[in-house]
Design brief:
about 375 residues; alpha+beta; Beta-lactamase; six-stranded antiparallel sheet; three-stranded antiparallel sheet; 15 strands; about 20% strand; EC 3.-.-.-; hydrolase; Beta-lactam/transpept-like; Serine hydrolase domain-containing protein
């Protein structure tokens, strides 16, 4: 055996062992994720969900469970389109930062600079982005049912809640708030000269190839749409119909797990924002008393077993969603459910934690 041949043989052996290790690790990860998901999403003939795990921008797990449409007995596929609910806020926040980079607004500006008849002179865009404005959340108003099925303009939505008494002085408290993100959507329209729907479509979806992402509609024909459901004591029913002009920029976008990975990858590569703008989105901020809270612009900034994570969920009639990103290892996990009876929130976190553990064990073993 020549020396050169022995070198080739050794390289082949090392490569084969590495490939075998990767295959075994992937199979083990898949089995463990399956086991976790099937504890909750185990009804084959009911609505279900889609789960995806990616590491370093590439998919390592992507499966669907349950039905996309109960009446037609159609199975969910990994490519189905779901309503995102409050994960919409990520897109609204990034759109605001994009407009700031273009010099069309500043996040420390007061709201009344863009909406002159807004009653508060103190509330800033930053406080809207971080849920520290204190304005009334329209989803908690008893009169919401009177407009829930009406076609509302952004101005009509702002007028609906703008004169309500504040819940607290701006900047003194963090309290999750949908009205703030409706205001931001209206301001996006005012400063961009375009509708929120068109701005998101042209500046984000089309720019990064999110071809199966939309502003939600119950009238448009949307390819591979997953239908939403509620669960009653007597069985499943179709989701409650609302006008998507009501949640607007706080919760009216639709997407797929695959498109949401494109979104995450684009953020990582600064395809939409420069480094400075991206840092603003993923920083923690402080209240007026100096106390830090765990929310950036459109994401919760938290820790999972001591590891930094960015996460956000969503809930809208018939759907629940959750996305978790672990920056240190570039791990992204998303869960999308087409029944608001199945929350993927904790399950997505559990899958992310297990993926992180296995990934680090794999590195250690190498």
């Amino acid at each position: 055996m020549t020396k050169l041949y022995r070198i080739y043989a050794l390289l082949f052996l090392v490569t084969s062992i590495g490939s075998f290790f990767n295959i075994v690790s992937a199979q083990s990860l898949e089995a463990k994720i399956d086991s976790l998901i099937l504890t909750d999403f185990n009804e084959r003939n009911g609505p279900g969900g889609v789960f995806m795990v990616a590491q370093q921008g590439k998919v390592v797990y992507h499966k669907a469970f349950g039905k996309a449409n109960l009446e037609l007995d159609v199975d969910l596929t990994p490519d189905n389109v779901f309503q995102l609910g409050s994960m919409t806020k990520q897109f609204t926040a990034i759109a605001v930062l994009m407009l700031e980079e273009q010099g069309k607004l500043k996040v420390n500006d007061p709201v009344f600079k863009y909406i002159p008849d807004y009653p508060s002179r103190e509330i800033t865009l930053h406080q809207l982005l971080t849920h520290t404005s204190g304005i009334k959340d329209f989803t908690k108003m008893k009169s919401l049912s009177s407009i829930s099925q009406q076609e509302m303009t952004p101005k009509m939505m702002v007028d609906f809640f703008k004169n309500e008494p504040a819940d607290f002085v701006a900047g003194t408290k963090f309290e999750y708030n949908n009205s703030g993100y409706v205001l931001l959507g209206y301001i996006i329209e005012l400063v961009s000269g375009d509708t929120y729907e068109n701005f998101i479509k042209k500046s984000i979806f089309e720019k990064i190839g999110m071809t199966q992402s939309y502003y939600a509609s119950d009238r448009k024909v949307i390819n591979r749409r997953a239908y939403g459901y509620h669960k009653k004591e007597y069985g499943y029913v179709n989701k409650t119909i609302i006008s998507f002009s009501v949640p607007f920029s706080s919760g009216s976008l639709m997407s797929t797990a695959g498109d949401m990975l494109k979104w995450q990858n684009a953020l990582n590569k600064n395809q939409l924002l420069g480094i400075k703008g991206t840092k603003k989105a993923f920083s923690k901020y402080k209240l007026s008393n100096g106390e830090e809270f765990s929310y950036g612009y459109g994401w919760h900034i938290r820790e999972m077993n001591g590891v930094p994570v960015r996460e956000h969920g969503g809930s809208i009639f018939g759907f629940k969603t959750m996305g978790v990103y672990i920056p240190d290892e570039d791990i992204y996990v998303i869960g999308l459910s087409n029944c608001d009876c199945h929350s993927p929130t904790q399950l997505t976190r559990d899958v992310a934690a297990m993926t992180l553990k296995m990934f680090r064990m794999q590195l250690k073993d190498r």
